[in-house]
Amino acid sequence: MILSVLSSPALVSGLMVVRAKNPVHSILFPILVFCDTSGLLILLGLDFSAMISAVVHIGAIAISFLFIVMMFNIQIAEIHEEVLRYLPVSGIVGLIFWWEMFFILDNETIPLLPTHRNMTSLRYTVYAGKVRSWTNLETLGNLLYTYYSVWFLVSSLILLVAIIGAIVLTTHRTTKMKRQDVCRRNALDSRRNIMNKTISPFGHS
Amino acid sequence: MIITILGIRGILLNRRNILIMSMPIESMLLAINLSFLVFSVSLDDMMGQSFASLVPTVAAAESAIGLAIFVITFRVRGTIDVESINCIQG
């Protein structure tokens, strides 16, 4: 309960991503969201998923965003007059999503509001977990490597496509690399070019 | 959950840069991942966790390619205003 209250900066940071004036601030707020999500996952008892999402989201995605912001001279924000132009449509969409959430979050399965039934719920112990308790890593590995191993290999293919795509997209053909056009190089006639230059040293053939 | 909705709002309201627009997409992916894991814990189902260990893979891949496209756009065009995206037409 205490740490769940401490993880409410995740909501505030999600709000502040939009409103930050400095582009570096608007990267630090998603990093805070990622940290808080990882903390929430540790609270749930999913230690492996917490560390994995911390490493992937903070260590890869946020760092690449930071690199991009540092490399390009992104101008500090314009005046916030643009916000009001987009506010009607986006406000309506936001309200629709918010309204739909109250259909999904049924209070019996997912307790949000503290009713009387939620406060006095039974605490049951799962005795199968005390005989041999599996770690989170073991349960994931039991499924991912045996039954759903195709998903695992497909995700590695997705990463391969991402690597190739990122490299292909950003090779810069016009940098000063000394390349040779092979056909042109073969079509030069050495006799004509060299003999012309040696016969007439004074620039007159 | 709520972070997802905040991310959608972040995309809709934030038309300044393409870069700042793509950051709530990442946070949305993380939030949906979190809701996958929470539901899999509370419903005692292992499918949520095995899917939720593959979602960050896709998230990292698409953020890498999205940032590469952003780099090229900045190199070609020189600015990162979103209003100048309709120069692609024609």
What does this structure look like?
- The complex is a heterodimer of chains A (205) and B (90).
- The model of chain A has no long low-confidence stretch (mean pLDDT 72).
- In chain A, helix 2 packs antiparallel against helix 3.
- Among the domains of chain A are: 75 residues, NADH-ubiquinone/plastoquinone oxidoreductase chain 6, subunit NuoJ (Four Helix Bundle (Hemerythrin (Met), subunit A)), CATH 1.20.120; 36 residues.
- Chain A starts with a helix and ends in a 6-residue tail after the last helix.
- Chain A has eleven helices and no strands.
- Chain A is extended and about 100 Å long.
- Chain A is mainly alpha-helical.
- With 90 residues, chain B is mostly helical.
- Chain B has one domain: Orthogonal Bundle (Helix Hairpins).
- Chain B is 73% helix and 0% strand.
- Chain B has four helices and no strands.
- In chain B, helix 1 runs antiparallel to helix 2 and helix 2 runs antiparallel to helix 4.
- The longest helix of chain B is centred in the middle third of the chain and has 25 residues.
- Chains A and B meet through helix 2, helix 3, helix 4, helix 5 and helix 8 of A and helix 1, helix 2, helix 3 and helix 4 of B.
Overview in brief:
The complex is a heterodimer of chains A (205) and B (90). Chain A has 205 residues and is mostly helical.
Over the alpha carbons, how many angstroms does the gyration radius of chain B reach?
Answer: 16 Å
Tell me how many strands of chain A there are: 0
CATH topology of the domain at 1-75 in chain A: Four Helix Bundle (Hemerythrin (Met), subunit A)
SS class of chain A: mainly alpha
Task: Describe this protein with a few key phrases.
heterodimer, A: 205 residues, mainly alpha, Four Helix Bundle (Hemerythrin (Met), subunit A), 0% strand, extended, B: 90 residues, Helix Hairpins, elongated, transmembrane helix (chain A), NADH-ubiquinone oxidoreductase chain 6 (chain A), ubiquinone (chain A), mitochondrion (chain A), transport (chain A)
